[in-house]
Amino acid sequence: MSSFIGTDVVIIGGGIVGGSAALALRRKGLQVVLLERDFCGSRSSGINFGGVRRQGRPLSQLPLSQRAHEIWGRLAEHIGIDGEYQRCGHLKLARTEAEMQALVEYERRTQGHGLGLEIIGRNALRQRFAGIGDDVIGGSLCPEDGQANPRLVAPAFARAAQALGAQVFEQSAMRSVAFDGSRFVVETVQGLTIKADAVLNSAGAWSGSLAAQFADGVDMVSRHPSMGVTEPLPFLLPWSLGVEGGNIYCRQVARGNLVFGGGLGHAVDADRARAQSATLLSQFARIAQIVPAFAGASILRTWSGAEGYLPDKLPVMGASRHQAGLFHAFGFAGAGFQIGPAVGEVMAELIADGKAATPIDAFSLQRFPASSLPPERTA
Amino acid sequence: MSHSHHLPPVVVGAGPAGVRAACTLVQHGLAPIVIDESPASGGQIYRRQPAGFTRPGAALYGFEAPKATALHQDFDAIQVQVDYRAGSLVWSARPGTLDVWSIAADTSRTLDWSQIIVATGATDRVLPVPGWTLPGVYTLGGAQVALKYQACAVGRRVVFAGSGPLLYLVAYQYAKAGVEVAAVIDNARLADQAASLIDMARQPKTLLKGMYYVAWLQARGIPILRNARLTEVAGQAQVQGVSWQRNGGDGAVNFIACDAVALGYALRSETQLADLLECEFSFDALNRAHLPRRDAAGRASTPGVYLAGDGAGIMGADAAELAGERAALALLADRGIEVSDARTALLDRRLAGLAKWRRGIEAAFPFPADWARSAPDHLVVCRCENITAGELRTVAKDTGASELNRLKALSRVGMGRCQGRMCAAAAAEILAEVVRVPVHQVGRIRAQAPIKPLPMTVRIEDEAP
Amino acid sequence: MNTRQGTEAAGGGQFQRVGEQSRPVVAFFLDGRPASALLGDTVLTAVLTQARSVRRNEFSQQPRAGFCVMGACQDCWMKTADGRTVRACSTPIAPGMQLLSGVAQETP
After folding, report:
1. Beta strands of A189-248 (E only): which ranges?
2. Chain A residue closest to B399 (CA)?
3. Which CATH number applies to C42-100?
4. For chain A, which ranges sit under pLDDT 70?
C-alpha cells in the first residue's frame, strides 16, 4: 500500500497567487500542500516588471487591488522581507493629446476608489522632473503605487507559508489529479501522492489543462513580455514610469539599474520564452524618448516569461462550475503581481469560509460559455 | 544526409578554430561569413599587435611564432573570398537568426543562418582571493595580452599565481621581457605533474616547452612555490604585496612585496552563443563546467550548429585549429559536398590524441576542489556587484536555494556587467559546498541576450539596397 | 601631489611599457588634465601608463583598474566628457579623447 499525504488543500502552482493563498490558508488553520513544478516564484511572478501598481487597472479589480495595497504596506510583517518594495509613485505618461485625454478620463472614473491620482500637465511635470523627454505632454501620478523586486517577493510568500507549516514541494510538477468521489488525489512526477478536500488551481499560464480536465476549460492565451535591465546608472528617476497605451515602461531600482519592458517576446517552447531583439531595439528608442539621460546606458540582460490572458483580460477567480472543492485563480494578464497577495487571501476565504470578503464576481468562470476549447494557446 | 542550404555558412570567432574553419570552407568552394568581435584575426593566443607595432613574431609568440604567422597569413589570404565582419559582436541568436552588432557603426542587423560554426573561445577561469579587486590584479591571460598586444607589463614587480600551464608561460614571457617576476605560486604539486608525465608526453614538444619555461625561470632564481596558494592580495588603493601559504602546511603565512598580480586557474569556455542557439549542455568533469555537447566532429545537438575550439571545452590552440577544420568538414559533408575521408580520419586521430594530452594537463594542474571550503566570508566573489561569499552562503541558507540561477535571482551574483564570466565558477563552488552536493548539481547560469553588454544607442542598420 | 593625475615619465602608472615606444604621441585628457599616450595604445594602456585606476565600482566605491584586458570582465568602462562610455581595454585611444575616471556614482 503506497503512502500519501492527507491535507485540507492542495495548491497547484507556487507563484505569488499560490504562495499567498498557502500563507492565508495556514493563518486560517487549514493544512496546505503547495506543489510547484519549478522553484516557487520563478515563473511569471518572478520575471515580471516589478511594478506594484493599482493605476491602470479596470474598475472591477480595484477593490482587490486596494486590499492588496494594504498588504503591501505591511509586507515585511507578512513575509519577513521588504522585497525592496518602495512607494515611489507610478507616473503614467501621455505623449499625445488623445493619450492625455485617456488618462484624464481614467482619473475621473476612478475617483472614490482611493487611488489618489494626480493629473500633471506639461509644465508642472518638467518642474518636478527636468529630465523628462520633450515628447511627453503630461501624466497621471499615483503617489502610493510603486515597485518591488519580484524575484525576492514571490518566493518569500511560499517560504512564509512554509514557515507557518505549509508543506511546499518544489520541482514537483503535478502528473495527475482526479476526484475519487470524496477527495482529490494528486500525484506528482516525484512519486508523491496527496489527498485533499480542495484543490486550488493557481498554475499561472499553465492552468488551462487542469481547468479543462474538470470541464472548466477557458480560451486562455500565453503572452510573453519582452523585458530588459541596464547596467547600474546614477540614480535620477524617482517614479516607476509607464505610458498610456503601454508600449514602454521602466523603473530605476535603488542600485541604479533601469528595468524596462514593453512589447512582446516570443515562446521558445511550452515552458520557455525570450525577449525579442526587434522589440528590444525599439524599446531603446522609446526609453530615450521619455528619459533622454538613459539613452547611452548598456543593457546587461533580457528575459521573458509566460503570462496567461483571457479574452477580456480579466482573471478567473472562483469555484469550479461543476466540481465541488475545486477553485481557480489564474489568467492575470501580466498584471498579477500587485494584486497577487490579495488574490491569495480571497481564495483562502472562499475555500475556508465559503465566501470572499472582497467582490470577485466579475472574475467568475461563469462569464465564459462552457466549452471544450483546447486548454492553452500561445499568441 | 544533405539538406539544401542556400545561405553561406557562418563562422563566429576568428581565433585558431574559426580561422581554420573558414579556410577549410573556402578550400571547398564556399564563401563563409566570418564574424569576430576583435579588429583582427588570431583570437587571444595569437592576437595580432596593432598597426605601428614592430616586434617580430618570435618576440610576440615565442615558440608558437610559426603557427601564429601561418594562421594570420592563411586568413589574410582568404579575406577576399569571405565576408569578414571584424569588430562585430553576435549579441543574440536563435535557431535560424543571429543579431550582429557592428561596434564602430553602432548598428545592429539580423543575419539568417542555416549552418554556423561557433568558435567563441575562452577567457581565464578565475577563483577569487581576498584583495583581487585591487588595481594591479589581472588574469594570466590579461597579463599576457597586455604584453603581447600593448608591449606593457601589468606592473613593475609581478607575482604569478593559480595553476595551469599558462602560469609558467606568462611568467616566462614577462621575465624574458625584462620585467621583475617576484614569484610563481602554483597550487599544483610537483607530484601531480610527475604523475601526468605519461599523458603529457603524448605531446612531447609541448611538454618540453613547459619544462623549458620552468627551468628557465628557476635558472634565474625566480622562486617557484608549488603546492601553495595566495591567501590575500594586500594593499589599500593598489597592490602592495601578496600573502601566500603552503597547502595543508603548518599555516605559516608568507608575504611577498609586489605591485601587480597575475592570476588564473586555467580557462573557461565562452558558451553563451551555444546556449542561445539552444544546444544541449552536459557537465564535463575534465573542465569542471557545463558545456554544449558535441560529437567527435563538433556537431552540436541543434541542427546546423558546429562547435570548435575552446568555446565548447578547453582543448588548446593546436587542437582548436584541428577542431575548426574538422567542424568545417562536417559542415561540408552535411551540405552534400565531398570531403576527404582520409583527412577526416587523420584529424579525428590527432584530436583524440590531444584529448588524452589534455587530460594529462588537467591531472598535472588540478582544480583546487577544496577552494570553497577555504573561501572566507568576507571574500568578494562577484566583483561587479560586490557580493561576498558570506552573503552567498547566507542567501543560500535562508532561502533554500540549491541551484545557481536561483542563487543569482536571490543574491544578485552574476547580475553585473560581466554577466557571470568572472564569478560563476566560484559561485557554483560556494553553493555546492553549502548545499553539500557535487558542483555539477547546482547547474550553470543560463545565458540571456545580450551576450555582452549592448549600449542602448544601437540602431537597426538600414537594409537599403 | 596626486600622482594619479597628469603625465608622468616612467613609473607613475600601473602599466609599464617594455617596448614599442617609437610610436606617434596621442594627446588626450584624463580627468580634465592633459595627458599623452602612443598611437596604438588602448584607452586602458593610455590611462594606466600614468595612473593607477580607471574607474570606481559603484557599490564598493573602490578604484578599479581593469582585470581581464580582453573585453570579458567589463571592469574597465570609462566615461567620456561628452557622456559616452567606452570599454577601455578594447577601445583605441584617439586624439582629444576626454576620459573621466573617478566618477562618483550616486547610490541612495
Report:
1. 193-201, 220-223, 225-232, 240-243
2. A159
3. 3.10.20
4. 1-2, 371-379
